[in-house]
Amino acid sequence: MTVHGSGPQDAGREDHPPERDAPVVELRGAGKSYGNIRALHGVDLAVRPGRVTCVLGDNGAGKSTLIKIISGLHRHTEGELLVDGVPVRFGSPREALDLGIATVYQDLATVPLMPVWRNFFLGSETTRGRWPLRRLDIEGMKRTADRELRSMGIVLDDLEQPVGTLSGGQRQCVAIARAVHFGARVLILDEPTAALGVKQSGVVLKYIAAARERGLGVVFITHNPHHAYLVGDHFSVLRLGTLELAADRAEVTLQELTHHMAGGAELAALRHELAQVHGVDVEELPEA
Amino acid sequence: MNRATAPAASASPPAPPAGRTDGRGTRRSPVRRLLARPEVGALIAAIGVYLFFFAVAPSFRTAGALSTVLYQASVMGIMALPVALLMIGGEFDLSAGVAVTTSALTAAVLSFQFTVNVWTGVAVALVVSLAVGAFNGWLLIRTGLPSFLVTLGSFLILQGANLAVTKIFTDNVASDSIADMDGFGQARKVFASEFTVGGVDFKITIVYWLVLAAAATWLLLRTRFGNWIFAVGGDQDSARAVGVPVDRTKVVLFMGVGAGAWFVGMHLLFSFDTVQSGEGVGNEFLYIIAAVIGGCLLTGGYGSAIGPVIGAFIFGMVNQGIVYANWNPDWFKAFLGVMLLVAALVNLWVRRTATRR
């Protein structure tokens, strides 16, 4: 484990004991180019157990490239990706999964027409008996799914009901509970609240907090600074493929976060331009 | 569907919000759950069709008629099973009809030309049939084209090859008779024998059909592979994201259709002793119709194995019932078309009812 004290995020964090706080997943100067287009460049990020790391950014800022690298869908072309301090290059999402890195995608979390319990165990079904009588352990799987869902605070009377009958937030939660059960140490959530209403978003945010309490490292990708600030411990703002801001909760306010999200320096320049167009002093324009 | 029950003992979990018990969520009633089973609509239709022909055609009521109906249903139903599994897995196989003929021709021509034991031909036919299925699946995965197009291509290839290759060897549209070749009697016993129950002769295919249906039901509902079939048909990308081997599942399903085509092909070959090379065209649609009438969703992800059994039984009843009722048999296809439309509408309604929030 050659982990601690090398990433820039470690500066000013000596209040945490290093063992407990060692990052599970760490990016060092990581980047990704598609042909001659540099989608991501020089990004440092550390995902620690029991903490929610928020990755914010506008559309095209490189958020999805970042998660695709961590979740094993794409390989990084520069820098390093470390899991438990060991540099890795993933060939497939399965490899990331085997190391405990689970990704819950916004739109492809579940199969709508399949019952909840079948969805919960999809791809990792448990069986009993010997071939040719080896069969799905239906009772066991239902019990486990029910227990896991309850422990995340989701109570369903009927695990046979198709997942498609659940609300969008509940479906996300089933996917999260599933990832937690199958030994995820790091949970990557890709815009889990993007398609949800206010109330449903609240439900998902609670489960994010619950996952953190269980000691998981959570990577929460969002473009909503308000949602991020409600649960986040660390914030990384991406802009045009590079890290615009990386700060712990103590070092940043919601206002600053929103400011950086909105484009920060660009917005200031825009104010100047607008001021010239209108022929007024910059100070007379409303604050961004 | 949700109750604001206090969460389990663990310290951290958030309580389910009270807002979810605002009266909009209800338990699904037992009737709705029953209707949500894919084969219920078909079962009701089957009973209706049976009673109808029972009423209008006196000769339909005999045990002999039942045997004929079941035989008709079994030959089609054996193929409808793998076609239904494939459909639940989200794909079609339009080459399924002519693939039966291809398999029978392979066994017949090979045995005759090389003067070998017919079992050699049977074994080679199995390999060829599985290879055709694997080729369909492989092409689908490699090209990303819809299975409708891919298998339409292989349908035309097989149809042409059936005729052309048979003509090369026999100068005729039918294969040479293999009735006096080694192993023919034995193979006929396996693939095309009869048995008697209470003075009525039944074909052995009826037994195979029901055993295979039971096996397919087990496969679908009690095995990991069955779970994957539903998943790849329901949402391929989600399935892949949670680690289901999507490509492998689909190739195996296509090979299953190949195995079915082999079995039915062997039955046809050993029922007679020669094969007409132009046969089988159009049967692929009958298999698909049996699956759809049986409640399998055309777009995948939903269905059962017992459904196509009932679908094939309806097919057999209508096919024979029209004859027993002394109607013009030309009406058969028209009747089948009506059944298909009704089944499709019932399926649509059932799916909406089952997934309503």
Fold blueprint:
The complex is a heterodimer of chains A (288) and B (357).
Chain A: H1 18-21, E1 25-34, E2 37-47, E3 52-57, H2 63-71, E4 78-83, E5 86-87, H3 93-98, E6 101-104, H4 116-120, E7 127-128, E8 135-136, H5 138-151, H6 168-181, E9 186-190, H7 198-213, E10 217-222, H8 225-231, E11 234-239, E12 242-248, H9 254-261, H10 265-278
Parallel strand pairs in A: 3-10, 3-11, 6-9, 9-10
Antiparallel strand pairs in A: 1-2, 1-4, 4-5, 7-8, 11-12
Chain B: H1 30-35, H2 40-56, H3 63-88, H4 96-114, H5 118-143, H6 147-170, H7 184-192, E1 194-197, E2 200-203, H8 204-222, H9 224-234, H10 236-241, H11 246-271, H12 283-293, H13 306-324, H14 331-355
Antiparallel strand pairs in B: 1-2
Helix pairs in contact in B: 2-13, 3-8, 3-9, 3-11, 3-12, 3-13, 4-5, 4-6, 4-11, 5-6, 5-11, 7-11, 8-9, 9-11, 12-13, 12-14, 13-14
Task: Provide structural commentary.
The complex is a heterodimer of chains A (288) and B (357). In chain A, the strands form three sheets. In chain A, strands 6-9-10-3-11-12 form a six-stranded mixed beta sheet, sandwiched between helices. Chain A has a four-stranded antiparallel beta sheet with strand order 2-1-4-5, with helices on one face. Mean pLDDT of chain A is 82; it is low at 1-18. Chain A is globular. Chain A folds into two domains: 8-110 and 184-251, Rossmann fold (3-Layer(aba) Sandwich); 253-288, no CATH class. Chain A has helices at residues 18-21, 63-71, 93-98, 116-120, 138-151, 168-181, 198-213, 225-231, 254-261, 265-278, and strands at residues 25-34, 37-47, 52-57, 78-83, 86-87, 101-104, 127-128, 135-136, 186-190, 217-222, 234-239, 242-248. Chain A is of the alpha/beta class. With 357 residues, chain B is mainly α. Chain B has one domain: ABC transporter involved in vitamin B12 uptake, BtuC, CATH 1.10.3470. In chain B, 68% of the residues lie in helices and 2% in strands. Chain B is built from 14 helices and two strands, in the order αααααααββααααααα. Chain B has a two-stranded antiparallel sheet with strand order 1-2. Mean pLDDT of chain B is 87; it is low at 1-26. Chains A and B meet through α3, β8, α5 and α7 of A and α8, α9, α10 and α14 of B. Chain B: This is Xylose transport system permease protein XylH. Chain B: Its main location: membrane. Chain B: One of its GO terms (cellular component) is plasma membrane. Chain B: It is found in: Cell membrane.
